[in-house]
Amino acid sequence: MRLKNKVAIVTGAASGFGAETARMYAREGAKVVIADLNEEGARKVAAEIGSSAVAIRCDVSKRPDVDAAVALAISQFGGVDIVVNNAGYTHKNQPFLNVDEATFDRCFDVNVKAIYHMINAVVPMMRAKKSGCIINVGSTAGIRPRPGLTWYNASKGAANLLTKSLAVELAPDNIRVNVICPVMGDTGMLGDFMGVPDTPENRARFISTIPMGRLSVPSDIANAAVFLASEEASFLTGVELPVDGGRTV
Predict the structure, then answer these.
(1) 195-228 burial, b if ≥16 CB within 10 A, otherwise e?
(2) Distance in angstroms between the alpha carbons of the first and the last residue of the chain
(3) Beta pairing class for 31-36 and 175-182
(4) Mean pLDDT over all residues of the chain?
(5) pLDDT score of 199
(6) Is the pLDDT of residue 46 over 90?
(7) In 10 A of CB 32, how many CB atoms?
(8) Residue 133's closest CA among 244, 246, 28?
(9) Does domain 7-242 fall into CATH 3.40.50.720?
(10) Is the pLDDT of residue 196 over 90?
(11) Which residues face 84 on adjacent strands?
C-alpha cells in the first residue's frame, strides 16, 4: 500500500476524476475526506469506500467551507498529509466576449482562488511537521489552449504556474507541490468543453486532436495522483504533468 497511514483531502470528489482518485487513495491505504459542493454525491462515494472515508459539503471558493473540510480531516483522522485540489469549473465553449462576469468570476474562484484558500488552510500544519504533498489539477488548457475557452484556459494557466511557484517556496519545508494536466476527459463537463452536443460525431472531432486517439478517463488522472502522492515521487516537485495522450507535444 503506497499511501498507508496517510490522510488526504480530495476536492470535487463526488464524481469524475476526484471520485476515482479518492477510491484509489483508499485502496492504497489512505484515509480520505471527500469534499464536494454535491453533498449527496460525496456521501455516496464515501459510503462506497467505507470506514476510511468521510464526506463533507464544500464550496471550495469559500474559506469557511475549506476550513471545515480541514477540521474534519483532523478530527476524524488526525491531520492532513495530502491535498488534491481537483474541484473545477468551466464556462461553455463560446466566443470570449459572450462570457458574463459572474461566470468569469466563478471560473477563477473555483480553479484558482480555491487553491489559495486550501494552501492557507493546510500549509501551516504541514510546515510544522516538515512534510506534505499538494496536488493541483490543472489542465492541458493552460499549456495548449483551445479556442472558445479563453477564460477557463487562463484560470488553468494560473493553476499550472502557481504550482511551480509554490513548489519552489515550499521545498525547504519538505512540502511537494505538483500539478496534473488532463486532456479533455469523459466527465460531466465534456459538453461544456466542446460547446456542441455530446454526439459520437462531435466526440470524434475532438478526439482527432489527441494523438493516442481517446479522451482521458478518471483512472488516468487517479493513477497519476497516486504516484505523485507516494514515496516513489519523493524528489518530484514543481512538475507540470500532462496526462493527455500526446495532446501537448
Answers:
(1) beeeeeeebeebbeebeeeebbebebbbebbbbb
(2) 33
(3) unpaired
(4) 95
(5) 82
(6) yes
(7) 29
(8) 28
(9) yes
(10) no
(11) 10, 135
* H/E element, 31: strand 31-36
Nearest 10 degrees: Cα torsion 216, 190, 13, 15: -100
Q: Which three cell numbers stand for residue 60?
A: 471550495
DSSP for 176-233, written as a single string: EEEEEEE-SBSSTTHHHHHTS---HHHHHHHHTTSTTSS-B-HHHHHHHHHHHHSGGG
Give the residue, 122 or 199, on which the prediction is more confident: 122
Alpha carbons 42 and 36: distance in angstroms, whole number = 6
Of the listed 25, 89, 116, 152, which one is catalytic? 152
Count, residues in the chain: 249
Q: Is pLDDT of 82 > 90?
A: yes
Q: What is the pTM of this model?
A: 0.95
Per domain, the residue ranges of the chain are 7-242
- DSSP class of residue 89 equals -
Higher pLDDT, 36 or 205: 36
- Condensed to tens digits (0 to 9), the pLDDT of residues 108-145 reads 999 999 999 999 999 999 999 999 999 999 999 999 99
- In this structure, are residues 56 and 86 in contact, taking their beta carbons and an 8 Å threshold? no
What pLDDT score does 183 carry? 95
Indicate if 89 belongs to the active site.
Answer: no
CA proximity to 214, closest of 178, 186, 176 = 186
Distance CA 114, CA 139 (A): 16
